[in-house]
Amino acid sequence: MAAANPTAAKPKVGDARLAERLRRETRGEVLFDAASRGRYSTDASIYQIEPLGVLVAREPDDIAAAIQIAREEGVPLLPRGAGTSQCGQTVGEALVVDVSKHLNRLVEVDVENRRATVQPGIVLDHLNKLLRPHKLFFPVDVSPANRATIGGMTGNNSCGSRSIRYGNMVHNVHAVDAILADGSAHHFGPVPGNLADVAGDQRLTDLVQRMRALHGREADEIDRRIPKLLRKVGGYNIDLINPAGHNMASLLVGSEGTLGFFTQVHLDLQKIPSHRTLGVCHFPTFYAAMDATRHIVDLGPSAVELVDRTLIDLSREIAMFRPTVDRFVKGEPQAILLVEFAGEDREDCVRRLADLVTLTADLGFPDSVVEAVEPAFQAAVWEVRKAGLNIMMSMKGEGKPVSFIEDCAVPLADLAEYTRRLDEVFARHGTSGTWYAHASVGTLHVRPILNLKEEGGAKKMRAIAEEAFAMVREYKGSHSGEHGDGLVRSEFHRPMFGDRIVRAFEEVKEAFDPTGLFNPGKIVHPSKMDDRSLFRWKPGYKALPVATGLDWSDWGGLLAAVEMCNNNGECRKSDPGVMCPSYRATMDEQHVTRGRANTLRLAVTGQLGNGSVADPAVKEALDLCLSCKGCKRECPTGVDMARMKIEFQHQWNKANGVPWRERVVAHLPRYARVAAMLAPVLNLRDRIPGLAALSERMLGFAADRPLPKWRRDRFDAKGADGDAQGAGPEVALFVDSFTAAFEPENARAAQRLLVAAGYRVTTISAEDGSGRALCCGRTYLAAGMVDEARAEAVRALKPLAAAARRGVPIVGLEPSCLFTFRDEHLVLGLGEDAKAVAAKSVMFEEFVAAERAAGRFNPALRPSTEAAVLHGHCHQRAFGTVGAVEAMLKLVPGLKLSTIDAGCCGMAGAFGYQKEHADVSRRVAEVGPLPAVRAAPADAILVAAGTSCRHQFADLASRTAIHPVRVLANHLAG
Fold this sequence. Notes:
Blueprint: H1 16-25, E1 29-31, H2 34-39, E2 53-56, H3 60-73, E3 77-80, E4 95-98, E5 106-110, E6 115-118, H4 124-131, E7 136-137, H5 150-156, H6 163-166, E8 173-179, E9 185-188, E10 190-192, H7 202-225, E11 245-247, H8 249-252, E12 261-268, E13 270-271, E14 275-283, H9 286-296, E15 303-308, H10 309-316, H11 322-328, E16 335-343, H12 346-362, E17 369-372, H13 375-386, H14 388-392, E18 400-401, H15 415-428, E19 433-438, E20 443-450, H16 455-474, H17 486-489, H18 493-497, H19 499-512, H20 558-562, H21 581-586, H22 593-604, H23 616-622, H24 630-634, H25 641-656, H26 660-666, H27 668-677, H28 679-682, H29 691-699, E21 730-734, H30 737-742, H31 744-756, E22 760-762, H32 778-782, H33 786-805, E23 810-812, H34 815-822, H35 831-840, E24 841-843, H36 844-853, E25 867-871, H37 874-878, H38 882-889, E26 896-899, H39 918-927, H40 930-935, E27 941-944, H41 947-957, E28 961-962, H42 964-970
Parallel strand pairs: 2-4, 3-4, 21-22, 21-23, 23-24, 25-26, 25-27, 27-28
Antiparallel strand pairs: 1-2, 5-6, 6-12, 7-13, 8-9, 8-12, 10-11, 14-16, 14-17, 15-16, 15-19, 18-20, 19-20
């Protein structure tokens, strides 16, 4: 029997009455504006369906209230966690209830029975971090573990790389607490044959009896049509029903939010293996790797994961992964298998790794295994594999690897033949596929490259799907092996399972949710998977005409650059890194890189209704972007939100002008020389009571944040500070406006250190005779004043390019300034001068590391018994130079160095001084490096290359940090 359709009487999108009820009857955040609905209209799939509105639930009672309101208002309801679903499970024309921000607690841990109770919004990596002191972990290790929520994983019946050992979610979820569509709350767990444990719950008893009756009636058909594989997550788990006793949670696992709303999930835990070893097996052909898999699994590995040639090549193009890939990949293999052994006995793990080496040699591939025994090396290799999806999506161009058949699972004996035949299918349709993932269980993620912006792309997708699924049925495999059904695969249940099983699925839905309240259109009563009206790229999708301030040709245009965000949500990650600091502080979808990219994409394609890129909703979404450039390095698809913010600010300025405060900050390099002469007067702002408050009222600078102090002894490249003569090679020292005006001692320390090491230091100055320092234009770029930034860049590039063409390295001290030469200057249309300067521009630490390696940087440094604590600037992290800073500081004999493993300091130039941003700036610092800064020993040297970082630590932690160049200069002998 078909479920009733609750959408017939639904209100229009953004209905005011629904929103008002939610605001009045819940404590959650109610988001019904167009931009918020747009941000929740997509997940990591190809689909885009605008929800009616969004409730960010604050407490469990909000879920119950939302269900009641939705039921009474006749609107569907859709649970959502991180929104990383591959198949469109978390998009729909419904009220979306987001549990990821607030309902993310570990409720209880039972160490003795190895069980944990969690709220649905807790992230897997966060959970495992909390379990680690108990030497326990939850073993379903999905690739997006740093942002995937347990509720989403449960709804999806997720699997992970080690499912060959630990199974899927359905094997590891002990029970689920859920609220049904009628508002009743139940504990779904193990139920004995006599129903004794549910005797007091009539609604649950009725469900158990109905499900057992269904199974009894359809037992033969279930046995005949449901695949006998570990990796089968299609439909509802009716094959796990047993009249003699079964776990009712098994029906909710994999239900994709269609049966009930999870409020708590009870998990079975495992002991953390004491030891792991990893073998990276290289193969000359893809098919050789596939054929070898069935032999490798006989060695009892905990994981066998495929990485194909395409993924290897794309990984090498991503700065974050290149060093690791170069370490574990030998030569030019067409495929590699990552084979892991885990257990309590280290010697046994090492022995089995040796057995792997012997086996591959016996198969005809001697010397093909790179052995990884060191845990850090293993972790780095797995990070590349876990990022496989996003790495695949880093392909530029309109054609992208598309997810729709990637979850097919076949028996291992048929794996090589299946992949060969599927490649032939791709070839017939004029495309190719990318392969990776779970070779151990016969589930390979394969994504044909298609352009779904065209009608022909959608037709190819359907044709390939039908041919692929027919093959899967032939092999008695599963068409849905890990990522679920959603909008992609639900349509294919009928040919896969037959009419009787599909009717059984419909009966399950009707029993739990008779009015069709929860997430309609998934698993049962689906739409067509190739309905282009549901795609992210609907018919007529195109960009508004925009005269961009920056050059976007390297991406194929501004829209193409924005579309590199595939919504997989790496920016929501919970582990250390830079990306995305304001999201970590707010936990709002609006303020994560994905949310910003979606908002910008909607504006660029005219979907916000304003008809302009300069939409207030985009301004609001980008307001807290700190331009840290963390996404430039850490987003595997390379989304560069800092650059996009510059472009947006430029467009906004054209439409609305530049505010006075932003002009004051932006023009700082032009008046800095005069301001230095007035330093005693200007610095009174933080000395005379009332002046700070006046500056807050007049300019918006937070009264409780002291501003940088102007220095009368500014660094003067043309004056007394001039050139410094050593006997060795020439070095051009670039002294930026901030260093020259506020911390000239850093420039003088660099100059002194270079001379001590034997270099001839040239302090290059402008050719206009003004006497003011060279400027990269960073302050103008931050304000979106692209034309002014270009003028400043031209002024700096002319003398710097002359040095660069002589082969002179250009060495800088301030990361945000120096890296502007290597980044934004290349998209300002500055021609060959910009390229020449970018090629020779290096941070001081990069210069020292390279020269030391060449045997040329050898100043006499006195020993130290001190401890030093280093914080890396965001742009140093983005460009991978923190390691060079560490190497430079270690040149001081005896210096005990440690590095803070945390993200952004939160200052970000003028951001932390602005009254409307001061609080967020503090919050970013608190979830970032500030706790470690406070915990650093009182006598330790605190080291930070960024002027913003040093000011943040002084203001918020009362700790003085110094530039790393001063650490070395302070230890010069003599």
